[in-house]
Amino acid sequence: MDEKQTLVRHFPISVDFEQLSQDTQKGEVKREVKRLKHSLALEGKSIAISIDRLDYTKGIPQRLMAIERFLDNWPEYKGKTVFIEAQVPSRTQISSYRKLREDVDALVTKINQKHALGDWKPIITLPGPSPPNTLAALRCLADLCIVSSLHDGMNLVAKEFVASQSDNDGIL
Predict the structure, then answer these.
(1) CA gap 90, 130 in Å, rounded
(2) Cα 17 to the chain's mean position, in Å?
(3) Contact, 29 vs 35, CB < 8 A?
(4) Beta strands per DSSP E along the chain
(5) How far apart are CA 118 and CA 141, in angstroms?
(6) What are phi and psi of 83, to 5 degrees?
(7) Which domains are present in the chain?
(8) What is the pLDDT of residues 19-73, one digit of tens each?
(9) From the DSSP assignment, how many helices (H) and strands (E) are in the chain?
(10) Cα(159)–Cα(56) distance, integer angstroms
(11) How far is CA 43 from its chain centroid?
């Protein structure tokens, strides 16, 4: 009988909270906030974000299905809420990851077709990688950040979001 050994260790990680907080005040980040508000028609909308590698461990299809269910159950939020999924390509040479990309794109299309109102679409995807100023601007703009990984070891997105909330009103 082969014996397998499991090893558990403590690997503390964090983010530079002060730097991320200061970045929100930079002119280029503020300009990017304005650009995104205009180009994505975000003015007056509640904004939810997720920033992920396009990886099966991140639960992206499950998150999208939860957004669809939210809109099914509370249609009064149509036209008032936008979900932005910023994706970073991952392992694009592996066929299962390319299939995940296709599945996510198809699911976004289906949900957007089902719930669109005029020019408004509930889900906006930003296939990445997005520049650091864009990610900082998204974290500043967002009212809500969704981190819903299925299996993840060291995810810093939640910490980055909290550090970027200058008004302390963000929901995680």
Answers:
(1) 13
(2) 19
(3) no
(4) 46-53, 81-88, 123-127, 144-145
(5) 23
(6) -110, 125
(7) 17-163 (3.40.50.2000)
(8) 988 888 999 999 999 999 999 999 999 999 999 888 888 899 999 999 999 999 9
(9) 6, 4
(10) 21
(11) 18
